[in-house]
Amino acid sequence: MRRPLRPRTAGAYALLGVTAVLIAFPLLLALSYSFMGASEIATFPPPLFPKAPNLDNYAAVLASIPIGRYLLNSFIVSTAVVIGQLLTASFAAYAFAFLVFRGRNLLFFVFLSTLMIPWEATIIPNYMTIRSLGWLDSYQGLAVPFMATAFGTFLLRQAFLQIPRELWDSARIDGASSLRFLRTMVIPLARPALGTVAIYGFLSTYNQYFWPLLITNQTLMRTTQVGIAQLRDEETLRWGLIMAGVIMVAVPTLALLVLGQRQLIRGLTAGAVKG
Amino acid sequence: MRKFAAFALALSVVAACGGGGTGGGGGTTDESAQAPGKDVKPAAKIVWWHAMSGVNGDALNKIVDGFNKSQSNTKVEAVFQGTYDDLLAKLNTALASNAAPALVQVYDIGQRYMYDSGQVVPMQAFIDRDKFDTADFEPAVINYYKYQDKLQSMPFNASSAILYFNKDAFKEVGLDPTKPPQTFTEVADAAKKLTKKDASGQTVRFGFGPSIYGWLFEQLLATSASPYADNGNGRDNRATKVVYNNAQGKAILDWWKAGLDGGYFYNPGIDNNGAANAFDAGKSAMYIESTARLRGHINTAKFEVGTGLYPRPDAKPKDGGNIIGGASLYIMKSRPVDEQQAAWEFVKYAMTPAVQAQWQADTGYYPIRKSAYNEGPSKDWSTKYPQFLTAINEIRDSPQNRFTNGAVLGVMPQARARTQKMIESVLLGKETSQAALDSAVTEMNTQIDSYNKANKP
Predict the structure, then answer these.
(1) Inter-chain contacts counted by CB atoms under 8 A, chains A and B
(2) Is B54 on the interface with A (CB under 8 A)?
(3) What pLDDT score was predicted for residue A269?
């Protein structure tokens, strides 16, 4: 089945390759810096590759912050947020896409308009709510405020609208409840969209800085991004150390994404041949 | 994080409207009434928010451990809260719902803002109540944190700005490494000699490469004996305008611009770390920065690092000198009196000479008390880094007046950012120096006006 590359395809690949290197460059440089000592990074012109690669920076990160605990916290919170978002967004999107009720469009626009409220404006009310619930320094406090997503609902509604209306009609005729239709038909068919919502939700939670900083005071409840900030010196930036921290935080996420992507593609193509 | 600083400012308006300021207070009145009674038993636990990360964070935790072991009444819990800006934003959120801690570390330029919040028990209250002796405290440091001659907070980490130079490069071009340049002209002349080009005419080493950093401009104004703001740099009374669009301000910008045009100054942009890296890498042979970077340079640079006095005008005005920088500790009014009491106990411990000397050795900030220099760790430090003496002598030799006390403004973070924009536009040739000064001053004065209107004392 293998055909020789046509010149146009080869050109496209070359272009894609260059773009890929450009996009990956900061990450690759971070990886390279994480193996260098401070004086090596300071030389001019800046070196691209470590002359004497060593793991000192990694050891220093492990010695100065409980990075394992931070990673665990970030994973627990991000996973909880993803599960919460998938549940709430798929239910809401199902209602907006399939159910007919009075004021549906109005309600949908109200939903969408919450996207326009800057998150910063809601920090203080959110903080006060979490505090009065006694959720400071807790996983609930870190995760619950982000478990509903207008953006995810919007995305899923658009995906659900792609599902032929006839499917719904026949399911109803066969006596399937809404919940059953959602579970057996909509969710499997909209898997790529659900995957997008999941990845987006996971990454944005994983990368949060200010909210975790705001509502946590105990070291044991803090998350990875706060940990990275802890590696930074006020007066002298130790790039090698910070980059080692960044790599340690980024690698698990990357691994998860790579695995998740395979799942996603499987989801996309499963049953594609049978139609 | 700039967004959060602006957000913190917006909140300060709310906080101050509700709370009201602590009022002026005369020059000699006793403030002890504002402190809890002497017999109040210190709380069993207090929380301290700080912004010290990395090496400095470890040094800070060492102080806390030391305090917790030294007595059994109070346990201090130190909590890292991000950068100084993050901490202030978090403090505001917390104050709105009564979740602030008893003790917070706030940066130098947050001083007026803390005062206007009306949420602070002035440190002077405790000092007056206990007749706590501050006679051997560094005057330059303690004066920085005074408003109307009352100490609002306790200085904790202090640094100042000095000239760093590459001794090897000095020797190479025949300059005397024991006599670093001191005046604007001397710096420019040395920079010309130090600038080196390769065969293709590309500059491989610049003479002088300061970052566009508002703090450095403030320091240059102070060595020029010029005020930054009115009302005694905002220390006799709240400042109503900034005034640096004067001859001294213009001379600073013209000197900077001429060096850049002449090709012997290097412009790293608004990038303090970039300027420090360029110095470490030998790309610039001199630059000006905080003393807190000294140890980093000595450990990283592959040449001998020299330190000298901060540049000043050729006339060397005798009223000119350097301002300190750093951060200080505030005891918060919103906590119960027993917690305030405990916070004060901790502050006193942190100010003991032995603790101060260890803090110096661990961080490179300088001790707040002169007697700390007699302690072992401090002596070892001075032996190891003799360059450090430049910094401390410079600050001690600075005359104490309103120029060298430094400016206090409620909108100081914004004012600093605005001067950076101003310097940049001059260096890039977008505006003449006088036009840039005037437009920066006009714009800042509008901001000061609205801040002052929103925060009526």
Answers:
(1) 89
(2) yes
(3) 56
Q: What is the pLDDT of residue A52?
A: 86
Domain residues for A114?
Answer: 65-231
User: Band of the pLDDT at B54, cuts 50, 70, 90?
Assistant: confident
ipTM: 0.76
Q: How confident is the model over B167-207, as pLDDT tens digits? A: 999 999 999 999 999 999 999 999 999 999 998 989 999 99
- Asked if B132 and B78 touch (Cβ cutoff 8 Å), the reply is no
For residue B148 the two structure tokens come to 């109307």
Contact A235 B364 (CB under 8 A): yes
Evaluate whether residue A140 is within a structural domain. yes
Nearest alpha-carbon partner for B437 in B217, B187, B188, B208? B217
- Residue B138, pLDDT score: 93
Contact: A234, B300; criterion CB under 8 Å: no
- H and E: helices and strands count for chain A: 15, 0
Residues in chain A within 8 Å Cβ distance of B159:
235
**Which pLDDT score, from 0 to 100, does residue B387 have?**
87
Give how far Cα B281 sits from Cα of B211, B277, B334, Å: 15, 6, 48
Residues B186 and B267 grouped into a single domain:
yes
Q: Which of B90, B202, B289 to mutate to test the interface with A (most CBs of A within 10 A)?
A: B90
Total domain count, chain B: 2
Q: How far apart are CA B377 and CA B383, in angstroms?
A: 10
**In Å, how far is B296's CA from the nearest CA of chain A?**
6
Crossing angle of the two packed helices A239-269 and A67-98, in degrees rounded to 10: 30
Checking if the pLDDT of B65 tops 60, the result is: yes
Residue B43 has pLDDT above 70, yes or no: yes
The string of pLDDT tens digits covering residues B406-454 is 999 999 999 999 999 999 999 999 999 999 999 999 999 999 999 999 9
Alpha-carbon gap: B255 to the closest alpha carbon of chain A (Å)? 27
pLDDT value, residue A267? 54
Is residue A143, in this structure, part of any structural domain at all? yes
Q: Tell me how close the Cα of A189 comes to any Cα of chain B, in angstroms.
A: 41
Residue B400 domain-assigned (yes or no):
no
- DSSP state letters, B68-119: HHH-SS-EEEEEE-SSHHHHHHHHHHHHHTT---SEEEEEGGGHHHHHHHT-
Q: Give the Cα separation of A21 and B8 in Å (integer).
A: 40
Range of the domain at B427: 160-323+406-454
All residues of chain A having their beta carbon less than 8 Å from the beta carbon of residue B99 are 131, 136
Distance from the B159 Cα atom to the nearest Cα atom in chain A, whole angstroms: 10
Banded model confidence at residue A268, pLDDT cuts 50, 70, 90? low
Residues of B in contact with A233 (CB under 8 A): 53-56, 296
Q: What is the pLDDT of residue B18?
A: 36
| Pick from A39, A64, A235: CB nearest B302 | A39
Cβ contacts (< 8 Å) between B283 and chain A: which residues?
44
Q: What is the DSSP letter of B40?
A: P
Domain for residue A208, yes or no? yes
- Please give the mean pLDDT across all residues of chain B: 90
Whether residue B211 lies within 8 A of chain A, CB to CB, comes out as: no
Nearest CA in chain A to B61: A64
CB-nearest partner of B54 from A127, A136, A238: A238
SS3 assignment, position B243:
coil
Establish how many alpha carbons lie within 13 A of residue B24's alpha carbon, considering only the half-sphere containing its beta carbon. 9
- Which CATH number do you get for residue B271? 3.40.190.10
CB-CB under 8 Å, A226 with B300: no
Span A73-97, mean pLDDT? 95
